[in-house]
Amino acid sequence: MKTLLEINEKKVPAVRIDPALDRYDNVVLFPAKLAQANARLAKSGLPGLKKSEALH
């Protein structure tokens, strides 16, 4: 096993992402949580921005 210092010296990423995960690109895995997050974002809005400024 390599030490953290040896990993940091190389330019290769320490984590590789499995290409098999690409099948989940356009799939919503947690629709209930997504709906909850969208509802909270719609309620809170962005601080300090008026709706006319947010569109431009």
Report on this model:
With 56 residues, the chain is mainly alpha-helical. Helices cover 43% and strands 0% of the residues. The longest helix is centred in the last third of the chain and has 14 residues, at 31-44. The protein starts with a helix and ends with a helix. The mean pLDDT is 79.
Please outline what is shown here.
The protein is mainly alpha-helical and 56 residues long. It is built from three helices and no strands.
Number of strands: 0
Unreliably modeled segments: none
- Proportion of β residues? under 5%
Work out the oligomeric state of the chains in this entry: single chain
Q: Report the radius of gyration as a whole number of Å.
A: 20 Å
Largest sheet: none
Category by helix and strand content: mainly alpha
Q: Tally the helices.
A: 3
Shape call? elongated
Q: How many angstroms does the end-to-end distance come to? A: 52 Å
What is the average per-residue confidence, as pLDDT, rounded to a whole number? 79
Order of helices and strands: HHH
